[in-house]
Write a structure and sequence with these properties.
Layout (H helix, E strand, L loop, with lengths): L2 H9 L6 E2 L2 E2 L9 E2 L8 E6 L2 E10 L2 E4 L8 E4 L12 E10 L12 E5 L24 E6 L14 E8 L1 H8 L8 E5 L15 E4 L2 E8 L11 E5 L4 H10 L2
Length: about 250
């Protein structure tokens, strides 16, 4: 399998559809648990035609951080827990500017994007900002990730936000497991607390949260979601901290 095929299999998230009786591969939390409602008030649902396709986090009242491969026109839903309900806590925005990293080009690296909203969120118990990590993360650190993606790696999408712990794997060990895929210093790897626990289809763009900060962005995994033989790979936020700050400063 080529790197391009791996990328297409694990991270492209388009509108849901069925072809030739098979379900299209997408990038959800598998083997996790339902999050306490609004315990992750920074979580964002990116939706196309009112269908969840990607996650993200609120980093400023008018900016969302997500993955660059989460392409297409989307609306942004903040303050959600159950996506099938119009919760009073929800705030909905359109995107007026998509700002992918300038070096992103349909590859596995630089998979990061900022979205400028058409208004400013009103902060509340259900809608809050998340700080960005600007330091390294030691191997063995227990973090977590969350999303509304596939929960069984079989096209089963939840209504409620799911979460799972994720333990940091050193880049050296991650590289040895991935073999033909180059794991760079701009990526960070993690595995779930057990076999086949981690992110899956629909979780792309969601956060790796370590010590209450956004340390990574869900980017890609192997052919089967959360397979410990190929650790989940996130874009390392600290590697892009200066770029993020530069974009925000240019858009006061």
């Amino acid at each position: 399998m080529t790197i391009h095929q791996i990328f297409m299999w694990t991270v492209l998230v388009s509108a849901l559809k069925v072809t030739d009786g098979r379900k299209d591969p997408k990038v959800g939390i598998v083997g996790g648990r339902e999050a306490v409602p609004h315990s992750r008030p920074y979580m964002v649902s990116l939706q196309s035609q009112r269908q969840h396709i990607c996650g993200g986090v609120l980093v400023r009242e008018d900016f969302v951080l997500t993955a660059a491969h989460c392409t297409g026109r989307v609306r942004v839903v903040l303050g959600a827990h159950n996506l099938s309900e119009e919760e009073n806590s929800q705030q909905i925005f359109d995107v007026v500017r998509y700002i992918p990293h300038p070096l992103y080009a349909d590859t596995l690296e630089n998979d990061i994007m900022l979205l400028k909203l058409n208004g400013r969120a009103t902060l509340s118990p259900a809608v809050q900002l998340i700080p960005l990590m600007n330091s390294s993360i030691a191997g063995g650190t227990v973090c977590s990730t969350a999303g509304w993606g596939d929960i069984y790696d079989n096209y089963t999408l939840p209504d409620n936000l799911q979460e799972v712990n994720a333990t940091i794997v050193s880049n050296r060990k991650c590289s040895s497991r991935w073999r033909e895929v180059k794991i760079t210093q701009r990526m960070v790897c993690a595995t779930g607390p057990g076999a086949f626990q981690g992110f899956c289809s629909g979780d792309s763009g969601g956060p790796l949260v370590c010590n209450g900060m956004s340390a990574g962005i869900v980017s890609f995994s192997g052919q089967k979601c959360a397979n410990p033989s190929t650790p989940d790979v996130y874009t390392r936020v600290s590697s892009y901290y200066q770029w993020i700050q530069k974009v925000l400063s240019k858009n006061p």
